[in-house]
Amino acid sequence: MKIDTASEIPIFIQIAEQLEDSIFTGIFLEETKVPSTNEISMIFNINPHTVLKGMNLLVDEDILYKKRGLGMFVKEGAVENIRIKRKNKFYDQYIATLINEANKLKMSKEQIIQLIERGYSNESH
Q: Distance between CA 33 and CA 24 in Å, rounded?
């Protein structure tokens, strides 16, 4: 995990994003414990309440859950929840924007698909 204190993104959101990415990539598996708020706060020298605020975002999104007296754990189904969230974000950030710009350029659906296919062809070389 990396925290950028110079970033415009609040630290608690960076923590949530880093933990989410670690879960999505398999660093923290479902039904396993994640580092405690105190461990994370000591590693990055930040306030434990800031860490907890980031973790609570993931609790609200059904990615983490609390076991009283034991800490935070990755919820079963968390990876799929993250996948759905990221697909929706991908659509909102890229696809909707792409279609909006293509409409301004008066491009057809087929022209957009051709450009995407060209992009995939360029990636494979």
A: 15
Residue with tokens 């974000």: 89
pTM of the full structure: 0.82
Write out pLDDT tens, residues 12-29. Answer: 999 999 999 999 999 999
Distances (CA, A) of 57 to 65, 84, 120: 11, 16, 35
With helix as H, strand as E and coil as C, how does the chain read?
CCCCCCCCCCHHHHHHHHHHHHHHCCCCCCCCECCCHHHHHHHHCCCHHHHHHHHHHHHHCCCEEEECCCEEEECCCHHHHHHHHHHHHHHHHHHHHHHHHHHHCCCCHHHHHHHHHHHHHHHCC
How far from each other are the two terminal CA atoms of the chain, in whole angstroms?
A: 32
For residue 88, with 0-12 CB atoms within 10 Å meaning exposed, 13-18 middle and 19 or more buried, which class applies?
exposed
Let me know: does 23 contact 63? Beta carbons within 8 Å.
yes
Q: Residue 114: what residue type? A: Q
